[in-house]
Design brief:
The chain has 114 residues and is mostly helical. Helix content is 55%, strand content 0%. Helix 2 packs across helix 5 and helix 4 crosses helix 5. The longest helix has 24 residues. It is globular, with a radius of gyration of 13 Å. The chain starts with 10 loop residues before the first helix and ends with a helix.
């Protein structure tokens, strides 16, 4: 599975929620999980206009959360309504990550507007 990209235009909200002396999220991956679920819940899936490849997160970091695979699969299943998309292969994994990234981006947009 490839790295999870982040939108360059959401850097300020990411920094606001993960930086400083008392960050709300101590790890970027935990913010991304929250943002993905927030975006999904609100039907806010937003393509990344420009991503910062140097700040992409390794998928191994997300695997610290036992819900990560389930969230990816659930979002994919509800987007495509086709259980064949859940089979692990390069094409399906790419689609799962893209869906996740776009919901993260949508969720970060919601957080940015608050």
């Amino acid at each position: 599975m490839r790295r999870i990209n982040r939108a360059a235009d959401k850097e300020s909200v990411i920094e606001a929620l993960t930086g400083g002396d008392k960050p709300i999220f101590s790890m970027n991956w935990s913010l991304f999980m929250f943002a993905a679920i927030l975006g999904f819940k609100n039907g806010c899936r937003e393509k990344l206009k420009k991503s910062d490849q140097g700040k992409a997160i390794r998928p191994e970091q997300f695997k610290a959360d036992p819900c990560f695979e389930g969230v990816l699969n659930l979002m994919t299943l509800l987007e495509y309504e086709d259980e064949k998309r859940l089979v692990t292969n390069e094409e399906n994994d790419e689609q799962k990550v893209t869906i996740f990234e776009e919901y993260v981006n949508g969720g970060l947009g919601i957080l940015e507007s608050k």
